[in-house]
Design brief:
heterodimer, A: alpha+beta, Rossmann fold, 2 domains, 10-stranded mixed β-sheet, B: alpha+beta, Ubiquitin Conjugating Enzyme, 4 helices, globular
Chain lengths: 414, 216
């Protein structure tokens, strides 16, 4: 495995141990049917797909394996969990993988690479919450297969901002129900998974998310106490198979449009119901997609004024109303240590990292949260807007969002 | 933001609403608070849903300050994260003096922070309230080092209302609601203070007055 410089958080699976990959190169056309109404270049369209699978459990694992068999160009796998004994009941995995408590995403990545060595497989053995917005910027479809509600909210918001279609596959074991929802995220007026949250779902989200107040912790990684999904491997497989049908129908334009629809299969009556998904005007998610702009220059070498110009959002009288997200960095106006009450910082900091040490008292210099901004309004940093991001503590930033009255623009540089 | 000491603190007398704090939107803002809200709303940023929510929260905070004589909002910033500088008349425990006697301040100046993602995600209990003054607060739920963030609990719901945060902050500072068990799974922000308070439970609470009491 190697770390990619433009995808810092993902690791690429480059080889499968004990496998001569030249022996398993196959052409998809060997088995690909002539789908009715499919374009003549169906195989190329499938081959060009880049799909991210969030959640590599009993549903997501099957989906990823199907994607490898479709020989798409790239699969990104995200899961913070490890295989455990119970995984044998619902996952397609081997006992030795379980006993080794292998990370789900990495373990699955090796399987995918073995099925199709030509597919680029990138894995992130962490939570979707920890994944940069920029890490999914070039993805065609995100498939969400998790029973973690916080991950669901985070993924929904990321896909809305990036304008990426989101397919959510889930099961309800008691009712033998497999459900697949397709959120097109094509405009600001469409639905998202959070739109349909009931009071019970909000309560469940609140119940299962706990934080520790231990010590002087600034760490904000929650502990998720959600109950595991009660289901069977065959029902999970049904949900993943239905999700794959939606992936292929969307990619090839087969049949009626699948965008903003829900498919439900119920095993009790063998009925399949397709219904439209409706947006909720009171949804707390931001449904406006960012326009995406590839910056011609390395972002740390740019000033925020230059990036505003590049974004096309303009400046002038509107400039004071603009604001910025500079990667995951917050802008700290004031910080302090034991020997001084507060002092001017005026730089970007990573709130999750330990900061600098004061040369006088040798204590950590800490940001004043009330004087630290994320996003940062232009009017709060007007005296440094002309300075390079590198000189403001953002030497390794690779994405910036510029917000103006016309919406947001995501600037990134590979 | 202005220095809170120079604020005009004239407030409009308001009757207690029959529907309690659920009806803060029915309070008519006084001249000063209307001006504060207007200035903040002129530069209110973010998505439509976030702007709407911020304006509602700002109105609620200002209304609350008219109902509760102990609570004053000095300034509100709605450009991105909702930031309000506000003070509460409440006994605030400070590090004991050399003789071991607890010192008490009578007012807390709070920095209230409400970021955009709080409307859809549960955030840590220490994400919302910074005690800007006094310093040296001696409380199990206030970090001794760092920025004096006040922890309001291990589980706060997504979309919690700012008026609830203010009431929780009052309860925590007056020690009407306090967690001093350092062995609790939720943890404490200041273990040393938690152990001290376990030995001095006779001092708890520091006040039994209700938040809305007319003469704080």
């Amino acid at each position: 495995m190697k770390e990619l410089c433009n995808m810092k958080q993902f690791r690429e699976i480059t080889a499968v141990p004990n496998l001569n990959d030249t022996s398993v190169r196959l052409s998809l056309n060997t088995r690909l049917p002539q789908f009715i109404g499919a374009p003549s270049d169906a195989d190329n369209r499938l081959a060009a797909l880049k799909i991210a699978v969030i959640g590599c459990g009993s549903v997501g694992r099957n989906i990823a394996l199907h994607l490898a068999r479709l020989q798409i160009t790239e699969v990104r796998l995200v899961d913070k969990g490890v295989l455990k004994l119970e995984s044998l009941l619902t996952h397609m995995c081997q006992p030795e993988e379980v006993f080794q408590r292998q990370p789900k995403a990495s373990n699955l990545g090796l399987l995918l690479k073995g099925i199709n060595p030509a597919t680029t497989v990138l894995v992130f053995d962490g939570a979707i919450e920890a994944l940069d917005l920029h890490a999914l910027v070039d993805i065609d479809v995100v498939v969400l297969a998790t029973d973690n509600l916080l991950a669901e909210v985070k993924t929904a918001q990321k896909c809305l901002w990036l304008g990426i279609p989101l397919i959510q596959a889930s099961v309800h074991g008691d009712t033998l129900l497999a459900q697949v929802r397709f959120f097109a995220n094509g405009n600001a007026h469409g639905p998202c998974p959070v739109c349909s949250y009931s009071k019970e779902e909000w309560n469940a989200l609140n119940r299962e998310t706990r934080f520790s107040c231990e010590g002087n912790s600034q760490a904000s990684t929650p502990r998720i106490d959600g109950a595991p999904t009660m289901s069977t491997s065959f029902l999970c497989a049904m949900a993943s198979d239905l999700a794959m049908v939606q992936v292929v129908r969307h990619a090839l334009g087969l049949g009626m449009p699948v965008e903003d629809t829900m498919v439900e299969y119920c095993g009790f009556n063998h009925r399949t119901v397709v219904s439209p998904l409706k947006p909720n005007p009171g949804c707390p998610c931001d449904h406006t997609a960012y326009r995406r702009v590839l910056s011609p220059h390395s972002l740390p070498e740019c000033t925020l004024r230059q990036l505003t110009d590049t974004s096309g959002l303009g400046g002038g009288s509107d400039f004071a109303a603009m604001s910025f997200k500079v990667g995951n960095l917050a802008f700290c106006n004031l910080w302090f240590c034991r020997c001084t009450k507060s002092r001017i910082a005026e730089r970007f900091i990573n709130p999750a990292e330990v900061g600098e040490t004061c040369p006088v008292c040798e204590e950590l210099i800490r940001p004043q949260p009330f004087h630290t901004h994320y996003p940062v309004p232009a009017s709060a940093i007007d005296n440094v807007l002309g300075r390079r991001l590198r000189d403001l503590g953002a030497a390794s930033v690779d994405w910036v969002v510029v917000y103006g009255s016309q919406g947001g623009v995501l600037l990134y540089h590979n | 933001m202005k220095d809170h000491n120079t604020e005009d603190t004239i407030r409009t007398a308001e009757p207690i609403l029959s529907g309690g704090l659920r009806e803060l939107d029915k309070v008519k803002l006084g001249v000063r608070n209307s001006r504060l809200l207007k200035r903040a709303s002129d530069v209110c940023g973010g998505s439509a849903v976030w702007r709407t929510r911020k304006l509602t929260e700002a109105y609620d905070l200002l209304s609350l300050s008219q109902l509760a004589p102990r609570f004053t909002v000095h300034d509100i910033d709605l450009r991105e994260t909702l930031r309000a500088k506000a003070s509460i008349k409440v006994p605030v425990p400070l590090i004991p003096d050399a003789q071991g006697e607890l010192r008490i301040a009578s007012v807390a100046l709070l920095g209230i922070l409400y970021p955009e993602h709080a409307i859809r995600e549960p955030l840590p209990g220490f994400a919302f309230i910074q005690i800007l003054q006094p310093s040296a607060v001696w409380h199990a739920n206030v970090a001794a080092e760092g920025a004096q963030m006040l922890c309001l609990g291990a589980q706060l719901p997504a979309g919690i209302l700012t008026k609830e945060l203010v009431l929780m902050a009052y309860g925590a500072l007056s020690m009407q609601t306090v967690m001093v068990d350092e062995a609790d799974a939720a943890g404490v922000m200041n273990t040393e203070a938690a152990l001290w308070w376990q030995q001095h439970l006779e001092l708890v609470p520091l006040s039994r007055a209700k938040f809305l009491d007319p003469s704080p």
